Amino acid sequence: MQKQKLNSKDTLLNLLENNRGRYFSGEELANELGISRSMIWKNISLLRSEGYNISAANNRGYCLEQSSDVLTESGIRKYLSANQFDINVVHTIESTNAYVQEQALRGKSQGFVVLADEQTDGKGRCGRSFYSPNASGLYMSVLLQPSGEIAKEPWIVTIMTAVAMCETIEELTGKSAKIKWFNDIFVEGKKVCGILTQGTLDIESGLTNNIVLGVGLNVYKPIGGFPAELSGVAGWVCDDQQEDMKNKLAAVFLQKFWSAYTQQLFLISKEKYRKRSLVIGKKLTLIDGVKKESVTCIDVDDRCRLVVTDWLGKEKTISFGNISIRLEN
Questions:
Q1: With 80 as the cut, is the pLDDT of residue 3 above it?
Q2: What is the distance of C-alpha 218 from the center of its chain?
Q3: Phi, then psi, of 127 in degrees rounded to 5
Q4: Which residues of 131-148 are buried (b: 16+ CB within 10 A; e: fewer)?
Q5: Are 135 and 249 in the same domain?
Q6: Who contacts 267 (Cβ-Cβ below 8 Å, separation ≥6)?
Q7: pLDDT tier at 2 (50, 70, 90 boundaries)?
Q8: Could you give the 3-state DSSP secondary structure of residue 262?
Q9: What global pTM score does this model have?
């Protein structure tokens, strides 16, 4: 894929990122990048304002500290074993999903990825707002152009995503992750991740030709905490800042998801999804608009639909759609 030429700030960041812990003099950097020392200082200041932990020392120069945990393309690629993604990292964006949808219309192809530190207009299901504060989270969207079974059954992407993110969280943090049907991930009883998949249909074939996969993950507790309406339900996966954690989370998730997606590992993903269910055996409230119904979840079937019984013991199956669920005490 054709990439835009890096500007001097991005080139400087890549150099520092690939040499974390090493000091470069202003003169070295100016010669390496072919720009003035004053421009080096200007770019260093811009990177610091974006949260990069860059030290400056007399007679030594500038150094990106090992302890930094800031999203960068080069930081993510350090942990990727292949180069199948067109990775684009931005500091702030209205919505990663909306941007990728726009770029799909402009001709971008499968594997186009956008990641951000902050969303100013992030969206969840049914157009609801998704809280996406600066510096504490990982907000990512991936463009997919599915074939085979996934083009017929695009909901499988959400299942694969949930499983891949659970495995990623567990591998990198050691914490157990569970799935609340059908697109929320919980750690220690609180929601840490939301998944939003949006697709477009080819009218002639009746198949899905573009899917935008969106993931919002709370990596750390936001500065100042969550808003009042979220404080009792939202959580995070890391209690303390850890070196390169956002880049690792992004890379490991992309690899796990891509492996399942490209190999079309439906059955394996479905079984892993079912085993990680947070709702099997639990009492739930089904919410369909203003209508509410108390049920008990007894299973998740082979299409990842909820199998529930009502207060009379009558069994029924709940499909994906506008119905939401709430765990009862």
A1: no
A2: 9
A3: 75, 5
A4: bbbbbbbbbbbbbbbbee
A5: yes
A6: none
A7: very low
A8: helix
A9: 0.83
